[in-house]
Amino acid sequence: MSPPPTAPARRHPDTRQRDLDLLRRVARADREAFESLYRSYHPRLQRYLGRYLRSSGAIEDVIHEVMLAIWQQADRFREASRVSTWIFGIAYHKALEELRRASSRPFAVPSEQLESSLQPVESQPGLRVALEQALAQLPKEQREVVTLTYLQGHSYPEIARLMNCPVNTVKTRMFHARRKLRGLLAAAVEEDA
User: Fold this and answer.
1) Which of 23, 47, 76, 99 has a C-alpha 20 to 30 A away from that of 142?
2) Overall pTM surpassing 0.70 (yes/no)
3) CB 117 within 8 A of CB 152
């Protein structure tokens, strides 16, 4: 996997020092400093995580995981990088963990996407179950590509970065996944007929 990107925007040196001071206070269990750091980074983390996660619920969950990690690990920050780089590095890894969790759940769809993404599936009894079963039969890499593309809205280049592979590998996995899904779903429809 490629290294995590740095913080999205350059911060003024005074802001960098303020962040460092806040983090040092957080390391001493200063709740007021933690709240201030949370307020400062929450909107930035929302925008940043929106590049990887499409569900607002998942984004908020990951932000909470990031902030919990900051609270628990602030004393381990060694000032080898900026505070913002450290925080966004944590966010990057937490987002990848969430993507892995989501791809391992059979047909995991954020609730706010159910109506738009699955409307045709929901209108046909049994088709959703057949689709879940078909997805579960795909090899892990193919299932991840399908999930990241159709359920989370990522482009092939984004998926290639997330999966640390060439874009052509993503396309090949999708090609094979679609072919397998067509066969599996056709067999399921024939069984129901």
Assistant:
1) 47
2) no
3) no
